[in-house]
Amino acid sequence: MMPRERVEANYVLPDYQECAAVLHEHGKLVGTHLDGNNKLIALLVAESGLDYIEAFTPFPDTNMSVKEALEVWPDKILWIDFPSSVHLQGAEAVRAAMLEILEQAKPGDRLIVGITEDVPEDRWRASFTMISQVLSTRGRLPIM
Could you give the percent of the chain with pLDDT greater than 90? Predict the structure, then answer.
């Protein structure tokens, strides 16, 4: 069995590159949903021709931080999924995680924050409120 990075390089990367070339030729952007552990394929994604990564889920739910992703993908927009596990830790943990994500994303011009996973019924109001408050006070560009 081939290692995953070899499979990605042989079978996935050429398709991303071909698709990106066609779409770019027509003035379109192309992205993909990468919500898992991406360190193994990070360098391949850098070569892919993708313009954005959607649903990127940062540490602690995966093996890459926002900072690592933005460094290895300097020409890509990072559309993150706020890490689901943090919702379970309460509003203050949500606040701290959102502040850390913004710090890692400085200057912030390549970051979109989203929530693409289910949030427990008893947590979403407090979590969404806290995320919104942090973004409204600290998320303006440029981030101070």
Answer: 83
* Helices and strands (H and E) in the chain: how many: 7, 4
Q: What are phi and psi of 89, to 5 degrees?
A: -90, -5
Answer whether residue 84 is part of any domain: yes
Could you tell me the CATH number of the domain that includes residue 76?
3.20.20.210
Q: How far apart are CA 21 and CA 137, in angstroms?
A: 39
* Main-chain dihedrals φ then ψ at residue 62, nearest 5 degrees: -140, -175
pLDDT by residue (tens digit) across 58-99?
999 999 999 999 999 999 999 999 999 999 999 999 999 999
Listed in sequence order, the DSSP H helices in the chain are 4-7, 13-25, 42-47, 66-72, 84-87, 91-104, 124-138
Residue 143 in domain: no
Q: How many domains does the chain have?
A: 1
Give a yes or no: residue 144 inside a domain. no
Residue 66 lies in a domain: yes
Secondary element (H or E) of residue 32 = strand 31-33
Whole-model pTM over 0.90: no
